[in-house]
Design a protein that fits this description.
The chain is an alpha+beta fold and 73 residues long. The protein contains two helices and three strands.
């Protein structure tokens, strides 16, 4: 992990096409802005983890009979 110190108004660049801005620094939180190409998904960690869990559950809920019917096997 890379740890950086930044001030309000500063930014960092990732991979030449993602820029992370420090918009505001409060007592308990830092407000950031992210500028990235539209084809790069950006999620808060808790949302990403929920999506991954739902995807895993969806795979477990699949019935092989449904897949066979889908492809007329």
């Amino acid at each position: 992990m890379l740890a950086l110190s930044r001030k309000k108004g500063d930014s960092i660049i990732i991979n030449e096409n993602i820029e992370i801005f420090i918009i505001d620094i409060g007592k308990e939180q830092v407000k950031i802005g992210i500028k990235a190409p539209k084809n790069i998904p950006i999620y808060r960690k808790e949302v990403f983890e929920q999506i991954m869990q739902e995807n895993k559950q969806a795979v477990l809920d699949v019935d092989i009979k449904d897949i066979k019917n889908l492809f007329d096997i």
